[in-house]
Amino acid sequence: MITRRIFLAGMTGTLLAGMSVPAFAQSNGDRAAAFVKSTGDQIVAVMRGAGTTDQKRKVLGPIIDASIDVDGVARFCLGRFWRTATPDQQKRYTDLFHQVLIGNITSKLGEYQDVRLTIGRSQPRDDNDVVATTLERPNNPPTIVEWVVADAGKSPKVIDVIAEGTSLRLTQRSDYAAYLTQHNSDVDALIKAMHQQLADGKS
Amino acid sequence: MHAEPSTLSAPAAANVGTAVLAKTWRWCIFAGLLAVVLAGCATPPPADDPEAVADFKQTNDPLEPTNRVFYTINNGLDTVILKPAAQAYRFILPSPVRNGVHNALTNLGSPVALTNDVLQARPRRAGDTAMRFLINSTVGVLGVFDVATDWGYPVHDTDFGMTLANWGVSEGPFLYLPVLGPSNPRDTVGFGMDMAFDPFTWVGHTPGMQEFGWARTGLNALDARERYLDPIDQIKKTALDPYATFRSLYRQHRQGEITKMRNDDRATIPVWFPQPAAPAAR
Question: Which of A85, A130, B30, B187 is the most exposed place for a label (fewest CB within 10 A)?
C-alpha cells in the first residue's frame, strides 16, 4: 500500500514537472500570445471601465505607445513617400499619425464597451509572430482578429491588426498612397488633410 | 456594399420597380459611356520612377478614373435612396425581425451556395450548406431561425467568384460597377453565373414569382445595407480617400474568404467510422 502511495506521489511529481517544463522553455509564439493577452486585457479594462471618453483617451495613449510600434506603422503607411518627405515632414506626419490612431481607437470606445477577447494560438509568419484572437461583442457575430507581433523575444510590439482577413496597416497605406497620388505626391497636403480629420473627429 | 438602390420600390409594385430599374440601367449605361469618354484610363507614372511604377502595378486599377466616376454616382444614389431606406428599415423593424429576414434570405441562397461548394470540391462545406438548408427550412420555419448554426453547421461565404479563384483564375484589374459596387472581372462573371445557378431565376414566369423575385432582391439590398450602416459611415469618416479604402478592403476581404475556403480541408470521415491518426498539432 505504502509503495503504491509513494509511486503515485512520484508519478504526480513527474507529471507536474513535465507540465511546468514549457513554462521555462517559452517560445516566441507563447511570449507573443502572453503579450497580446496582457495588452488586450489592459485596453479592454479601460474600455469597460468608468470615466469619460476624454479620460479614457488619456489613459489609452501610454498603453498604445507602449504596445504598438506606432512610429514603424506610420513609416509603413507612408510607403515610398517616406523617403521623399523632408525630416520635418516626417516628424510632423508621425506626430499626427499618433493622434489619428488614438482618435480612431477612442472613437470606437462606445461600440466596444462590452467586448470580450479570447486568445487563440500563435504562429510565426515572415519574421513576426501572429496571434489569433476572437473578439466577441453582444449582438455581433464573433470576429477573428489577428495581431502581428514583431520582436516577441526582446521588446514585443504590435505592428499590424488583421480583422477578418483585412490588414489595418495595408488599408491605411493604400488610403494615404491614393490620397498622395491624387495630390501631386505632396506630403504637406496629406498632413493638412490629417489635421482636418483630427479637427472633424473632435467636434 | 452590393448596393441596388433601384430595387427599393419592388415589393408592392413590381411594374413600377421594373420601370425604375430599366430607367436606372439606361441612365447608368449612358453615364458609363460618358464616364469612359470623359475619364478614360489611368495614366501610368513615368518609367524612371520604378517605385511609383511598382505601386501602380500593385494597385492594378487601370480604369481608375472611370471607376471613380461610378463610385461617385453610386455614392450619390446610396446617400439619397439606399442609406435612408436602410435607416428606416432599422428604425421600423426590431433586431430579431431583421435577423429573421437575414436568415431567411441566406437560406434562399442555399442552392447557389451548395452548387459552389461542390464545384470548389469542399465536401464538408457542401455538407454544412445541405444540412443548413434541410434543418433551417424545416425546424427553422422556412429559414427564419438559424437552428443549424447551434447544431454545428455554421454558415460560410461562397460564390462563383470564389469557385473561379479556386480553379486558378486571377482576379484581374479592379472594377467599380454601377449599382453593384466594387468588383473585378472574375467576380463579375461569378455574379452572373450565380444568378444562372439560382433555381428562382428559372421559375420566374409563374404568377407571383416575379413579385417574389423583386421582393427578395429589394430585401437583400436593404438587409446588406443595414448591416453595413455603421462600418461604411466609419470608413467614410476616417478615410482620406474612401474609394481607395473600399478598393483595398474589398480585395483583402475577398482574398481572406478565398484563403479560408482553400484551407477548409476538414476530414470527410463520419465520426462513427474509425478515424485516421490525428494530424500533428501545428
Answer: B30
